[in-house]
Backbone:
């Protein structure tokens, strides 16, 4: 059948009586979905916004009176913002301070209390995409047009992920995810997750590219910068050992001088986990992003597939690496997995195994023996494997083989993935998380006391400009 015949058949199916009936049924289903699902959801969300704003305005009414008396003005400051469908509105704030009390309020997030009036007017919502200045976004971008289909909010999904150092996606991607999946229940979940997010401080900060935490050198990168650095070394055939350091690794390095020295010599060391983020916040060495192997793996697989680079999987129990290989084949079919090997080999088998890895010529070798054994093993044997880049990945294979479930996204966003791991393996993890984390935080607290008080960074901060 040629192209003209195919077009004729398509037109017939579309404009025949049966085709017209199908089109009408589809239109009726869309309209019914709007009235039965979309409209009630929007109405419920609007009711919650109005009731919440009225309650907070009632509680905050004494503050309005005190501010107006102090500032001797009933006017509001106005900032032009982009609202739903691209309509520009004026965000209301307290005016510039003129008295001591108004200056004290102006120095806090309470200066934005009048924004509750914007919520009552329908300019914005408690939960939605980030509130942006007028003209900040280009309406020609499809992702922006999708974002503008809902009201902006005081708290957004991207803001929470940025505070937890896991904002790996572009802001507009997170906005599109919110627009596609938001419900009243999910909005309540975002509101609850915003509470611990306030304690974590800012997410990606203007910070040095290299910092020192607990006497461990850390390459302070975002996830994308870390992947780019790995690819650059593989493409240049520049040998490199890569390590991920979390709170437990920092404790091991404190007790094990050999491991500590190895971390000093490693080519790249990334901060992994909420413990390292809190340590960076307390010790005035902000960490840009939580660069961990589990979140990096799919992004790294996509980059390796695109560049035609080769991957070798080493470690975990027998059968696990084959299941990870099957996962890769399904998700990234053009990625070359040049070999797999479980981690239960004897010293007598090691020379033959090293020769097999070298013969496979991997650009990247992932080693899952658990820290610090995996990193010490790489430091000793990387040259014999012939791998350009080698890094220890801990329990990563267990996650991607399906043997061990990973914490849900909402637990990762509030920094509680460790609790999920403990629930999965309480006997193995209780000492690491409850005793080890206490030891880790104790060491951080002792180091914080050495920092001059005048230069300390506060642990909490309220959302300011740009709005969350």
Residues:
């Amino acid at each position: 059948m040629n192209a003209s015949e195919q077009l004729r058949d398509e037109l017939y199916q579309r404009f025949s009586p049966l085709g017209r009936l199908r089109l009408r049924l589809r239109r009726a289903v869309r309209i019914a979905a709007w009235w039965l699902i979309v409209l009630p959801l929007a109405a419920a969300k609007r009711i919650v916004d109005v009731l919440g704003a009225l309650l907070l305005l009632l509680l905050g009414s004494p503050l309005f009176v005190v501010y107006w008396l102090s500032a001797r003005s009933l006017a509001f400051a106005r900032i032009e913002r982009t609202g739903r469908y691209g309509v520009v509105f004026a965000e209301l704030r307290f005016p510039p301070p003129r008295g001591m009390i108004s200056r004290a309020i102006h120095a806090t997030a309470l200066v934005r209390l009048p924004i509750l009036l914007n919520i009552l007017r329908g300019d914005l919502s408690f939960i939605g995409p980030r509130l942006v200045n007028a003209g900040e976004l280009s309406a020609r971008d499809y992702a922006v047009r999708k974002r503008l289909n809902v009201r902006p909010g005081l708290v957004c999904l991207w803001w929470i992920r940025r505070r937890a150092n896991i904002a790996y996606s572009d802001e507009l991607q997170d906005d599109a995810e919110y627009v596609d999946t938001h419900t009243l229940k999910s909005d309540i979940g975002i509101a609850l997750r915003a509470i611990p997010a306030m304690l974590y401080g800012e997410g990606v900060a203007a910070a040095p590219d290299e910092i020192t935490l607990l006497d461990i050198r850390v390459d302070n990168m975002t996830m994308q910068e870390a992947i780019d650095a790995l690819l650059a070394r593989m493409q240049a055939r520049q040998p490199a050992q890569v390590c991920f350091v979390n709170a437990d690794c920092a404790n091991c390095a404190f007790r094990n001088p050999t491991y500590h020295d190895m971390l000093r010599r490693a080519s790249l060391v990334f901060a992994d986990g909420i413990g390292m983020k809190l340590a960076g916040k307390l010790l005035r060495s902000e960490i840009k992003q939580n660069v961990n192997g589990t979140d990096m793996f799919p992004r790294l697989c996509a980059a390796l597939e695109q560049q035609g680079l080769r991957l070798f999987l080493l470690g975990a129990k027998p059968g696990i690496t084959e299941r990870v290989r099957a996962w890769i084949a399904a998700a990234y079919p053009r990625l070359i997995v040049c070999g797999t090997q479980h981690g239960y080999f004897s010293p007598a088998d090691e020379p033959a195994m090293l020769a097999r890895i070298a013969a496979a010529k991997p650009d990247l070798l992932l080693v899952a023996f658990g820290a610090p054994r995996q990193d010490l093993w790489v430091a000793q044997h990387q040259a014999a494997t012939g791998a350009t880049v080698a890094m220890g990945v801990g329990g990563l294979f267990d996650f991607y083989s399906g043997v061990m479930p990973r914490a849900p996204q909402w637990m990762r966003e509030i920094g509680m993935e460790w609790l999920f791991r403990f629930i999965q393996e309480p006997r193995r993890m209780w000492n690491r998380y409850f005793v080890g984390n206490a030891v880790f935080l104790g060491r951080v607290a002792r180091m914080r006391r050495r920092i001059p008080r005048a230069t300390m960074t506060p642990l909490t901060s309220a959302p300011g400009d740009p709005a969350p």
